[in-house]
Design brief:
single chain; mainly alpha; de novo design (two linked rop proteins)
């Protein structure tokens, strides 16, 4: 949600580029995990959705970097978002390596 609210302050010229992409990818992390978790008894489906979430998390990392390099967020925000993104990636990776723990 922080990404969503902060990205509302990005320049209007970024509305269909960076702004929509960072919002979409960050939301897709959550939605892919939720979709997979509901079908976690089907291990392959669960793992595919986790892999999608992992990919979207990586994409979000890229957009965070662009936002910082374009001076749309300050270094403190960049570091906080990047650290949170890294932690989320670690959690998803753990889930991918141990899907049986979630069945």
């Amino acid at each position: 949600m922080e990404i969503f609210h902060q990205s509302e302050n990005f320049p209007s010229g970024e509305k269909y580029a960076l702004t929509s992409q960072i919002i979409r990818s960050s939301r897709a992390v959550c939605s892919n995990i939720a979709e997979g978790y509901r079908k976690r008894t089907y291990k392959k489906h669960f793992v595919v959705k986790l892999a999608d979430a992992f990919m979207e998390n990586t994409e979000t990392e890229v957009w965070i970097g662009f936002a910082f390099r374009c001076n749309y967020i300050n270094e403190e925000t960049y570091n906080r978002w990047n650290n949170l993104n890294t932690e989320i990636g670690k959690i998803i990776h753990f889930m991918l390596m141990h899907p049986e723990k979630f069945q």
